[in-house]
Design brief:
Layout lengths: L3 E2 L10 E10 L13 E11 L11 E5 L11 E11 L3 E10 L14 H16 L2 E11 L25 E13 L6 E7 L17 E12 L17 E6 L6 E2 L4 H7 L3
Parallel strand pairs: 4-6, 9-11
Antiparallel strand pairs: 1-5, 2-3, 2-5, 3-4, 5-6, 7-8, 7-10, 8-9, 10-11, 10-12
Length: 268
């Protein structure tokens, strides 16, 4: 079987969480893995959170490149938070952390949760906790960000060359029906989002006129001197900086049918 190496997952954002038992130290389940003091063969006792590619790994042996330098012994059980590494005849992952199983992990390991749904829910909870404003409503318009007011002092700073990763910023105008978190006096809120389908931006929500949903919004400071197309968002007198609402993560936009669940997840 062809071997594939994955490096597209962000460091510190584990793709898989599982309970596992260490079977061998300084070993691996496939020859493609460079063996070291920190590689171990681990049996997956329970998959807790995972994407589809890992959701059915329960009961299998895989290779783990252990995190940190603490000694690990054969027979010990850990909760592993890991990112994918190598796919081949087996699977190898790189642990971000491994924690010895304690009573505090019982809730995490409660039966009945489907691993891919557990992962989605955890990501949503993280975004809700970090959000400055959560609203339900309807997208009334999608526009190009406003042009800056012409200066009487000259043409201003020159435009920078367009990058291959240009986000192609757009501004969605959302008519607010309900505010679930945060404070917003107006019945409308403007949200900046990337329309680009470049690899850096393709997962971000792409708002459409008429779209109804629950929107998880984050205040973001943008240096408008570095983004010429956004200079019109900077208030007069601001030194090249604008504070806007953004929605950049897949967990920042949801259909209205999820409104009740999201309201329950928002912590007071």
């Amino acid at each position: 079987m062809a071997t594939k190496t994955r490096s597209d997952l962000p460091e510190g954002s584990p793709a898989i969480i599982f309970k596992g038992t260490v079977k061998k130290i300084k070993s691996a389940t496939m020859k493609e893995v460079p063996i070291s003091d920190r590689t171990a063969v681990v049996r997956v006792d329970q998959v807790i959170e995972a994407p589809r590619t890992f959701a059915h790994c329960g009961g299998q042996d895989l290779t783990v490149e252990l995190a940190g330098k603490k000694k690990v012994s054969v027979g010990e059980q850990f909760i592993f938070h890991a990112n994918s590494w190598i796919f081949g005849d087996s699977v190898a992952v790189r642990a971000v952390t491994q924690e010895r199983v304690t009573k505090e992990h019982l809730a995490l390991m409660s039966p009945g949760g489907e691993p891919t749904e557990q992962r989605k829910n955890r990501q949503l909870q993280k975004r809700l906790n970090a959000a400055d404003l959560v609203v339900s409503g309807k997208v009334a318009a999608v526009t190009i960000p406003p042009e800056p007011v012409p200066s009487t002092r000259g043409a201003g700073a020159p435009r920078k060359p367009v990058s291959e990763h240009d986000p192609k910023w757009r501004q969605a105008v959302i008519v607010v029906d309900q505010t679930h978190k945060g404070k917003h006096d107006s019945k409308q809120v403007n949200v900046l989002f990337p329309a680009s389908t470049d690899v850096r931006w393709y997962k971000a929500p792409k708002f459409q006129v008429g779209q109804k949903g629950v929107f998880v919004l984050h205040k973001t400071k943008i240096k408008t001197d570095e983004h010429h197309e956004l200079r019109g968002l900077a208030p007069r007198g601001a030194a090249g900086e604008a504070e806007v609402y953004t929605a950049l993560d897949p967990a920042d936009a949801h259909p209205l049918k999820q409104q009740a669940v999201i309201k329950e997840m928002i912590r007071p």
